[in-house]
Design goal:
Length: 227
Amino acid sequence: MPGPDADADADADAYDATPFVPERGGLDALRKAAARCEGCPLFREATQTVFGKGRRSARVVLLGEQPGDQEDRRGEPFVGPAGHLLMRACSEAEIDPAETYVTNAVKHFKFVLSEERGKRRIHKPPTLRELAACRPWLSAELRLVEPELIVALGATAGKALYGSGFRVTQARGAVLDPPDELQALDAKGVVATIHPAAVLRAGENREEVYAGLVSDLRVAAAALSRS
């Protein structure tokens, strides 16, 4: 059975996690509430909600797209190969991984089953409706963590913050003004870059693509050093 497709659901306009987000409490309260979220159909096929992880006082939020297969099974973000690569890139760029909070724009794994690949669960990008439905969780996380900087990892993360017109190829490697909703957080801004999974898919160009990721993260590190 393939994973759910939000665009095919007749109730897509009603997707919204807001009723599941508690009005008060810290990150632990959010995490517990998110485990019961049914704000869009993705919860039906996913193993579990994969909420953000990190310190309440983290200086940087690393924002990805959605959990992958390993994250869905383990219930933690960025624990697969892409996550390990991201932490290595952060260290190389002189961003302390211990000073980061990692999360995703969408908290459930969206996938299709591939018959050609032994019925493996293959990642499928979330739709704009699913991004919008899950946005209340991300907004609540950012309000509590109050990061100095957000790193948007890939196009979907950027669209979650800035809307459908966002293009990571045009915006990467610079400190962008935070979106209107986040102005009150007093964050320095957003640095966009590629998702670390893009490095793993780069084949013979992997070293070059990885170097570009590190270069973008160094822009974020430099912004933090000016605080």
